Structures are given as C-alpha cells and as structure tokens.
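Below is a filled-in request sheet from our internal design queue. Each sheet records the structural input a requester submitted and the sequence that came back. We keep these sheets so that new team members can see what a complete request looks like end to end.

REQUESTER: design group, bay 2
PRIORITY: normal
MODE: inverse folding
CHAIN LENGTH: 197
BACKBONE (tokenized):
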C-alpha cells in the first residue's frame, strides 16, 4: 500500500493539480511491485526481507483545499498553531480559483480534527521521509530511487526537524521499495514518530 486519500467536501477549480492531490483519488492499491536486485545494486549489508521486517510508519501529509484568497495560508497555519500543532513541512500550489496546501505536522490526529471542525476540504496521503546530513545528500537520495526505478511524484523539504538535520518529504509510486532502497544504502528514513514532539 503506497498511499490513500479521503474526501471531506466538494472542491472546484482544480485545473493544474496533480491526480494525487485531487479529492476522490484514493491510492490504496499497490503499484507495480518490483523485486529489487540487491546484487545488481552492489548491496550486501542486509537483505530486503530484513529491512521489510522493520517497516516504519508513514508520514501523514494533508492536502488542504481552499479558495485562492489573501491570508488563507496564515489563517490555516494560525489555526494549527493555536492548538499546539506544529508545521514540520509545507508546500503550496495556486490554481485558477483555488489553492492547495500540502502540510505535514507533528500531530496528525489533532490536525485532522481541526480541518474537519473548521470545514477545510482535505485528503491524506502517506509520505516517505529521508534525513540528509547536508544538501549534498540530495543526489544520493535521487540516485538510490532511480536505481530502484521508483518514480517521485513530488517532494519538498522539511521546515523543521527535532534533531536539526535536513530532510525531504517524498510522494513516490512505491513507498516500501523506496524505503528499502534508501535503507540499504545507509540513509536514514524518517517516519511520523521522528517528527512528532
């Protein structure tokens, strides 16, 4: 399972928004599961079966839909902050008459309740997070996913991490295979527990 979405209200004006963020697109089926050839990748540290035995919980992303108006981002972030929900990563997209906020928080259960109570249409997706020591690790992350033939639909950086390191949030077509590929190369995969305070 690579991701899932849940519609909580009607939305119009989504021209230019990717299918992964449109309400009604529920990503609940596995996509093209591929066996990863460790020998071809010159990886001998551990087997895929060993990494899969320690599967990490996914990071929850909210895609929040709203009308495109001045101050809407401040309004949403303020609503979360007032209830002690911290934004750990975010990205915005403007369309013709609406806007999309992708946001990752440290308390997704509380954020979910707030979005519902305040009437914000949203869906949830399961994301992959990876820690980087510096910006130089970006190339290694992308190379690992390319070698494993994992497609990246979108990515954006974390605003904050509890341990102060850089990090990326990624939506990929095979989250488990991506996690295995990164782990086998010694990279630190981030889960929801790592960004919760």
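RETURNED SEQUENCE:
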């Amino acid at each position: 399972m690579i991701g899932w979405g849940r519609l909580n209200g009607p939305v119009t004006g989504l021209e230019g928004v990717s299918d992964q963020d449109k309400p009604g697109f529920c990503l609940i089926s596995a996509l093209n599961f591929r066996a990863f050839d460790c020998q071809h990748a010159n990886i001998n540290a551990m087997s895929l079966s060993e990494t899969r035995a320690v599967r990490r919980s996914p990071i929850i992303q909210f895609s929040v839909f709203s009308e495109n108006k001045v101050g809407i981002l401040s309004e949403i972030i303020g609503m979360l902050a007032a209830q002690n929900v911290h934004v750990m990563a975010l990205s915005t997209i403007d369309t013709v008459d609406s806007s999309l906020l992708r946001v990752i928080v440290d308390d997704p259960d509380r954020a979910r309740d707030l979005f519902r109570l305040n009437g914000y249409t949203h869906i949830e997706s399961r994301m992959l997070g990876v820690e980087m020591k510096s910006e130089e690790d970006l190339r290694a992350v992308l190379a690992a996913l390319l070698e494993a033939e994992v497609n990246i639909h979108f990515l954006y950086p974390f605003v904050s991490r509890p341990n102060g390191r850089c990090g990326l949030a990624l939506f990929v077509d095979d989250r488990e295979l991506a996690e295995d590929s990164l782990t086998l190369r010694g990279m630190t995969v981030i889960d929801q527990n790592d960004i919760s305070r």
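SHEET NOTES:
- Residues 40-57+127-195 form a domain with the VC0802-like fold (CATH 3.30.2130.10).
- The mean pLDDT is 78.
FILED BY: M.R.
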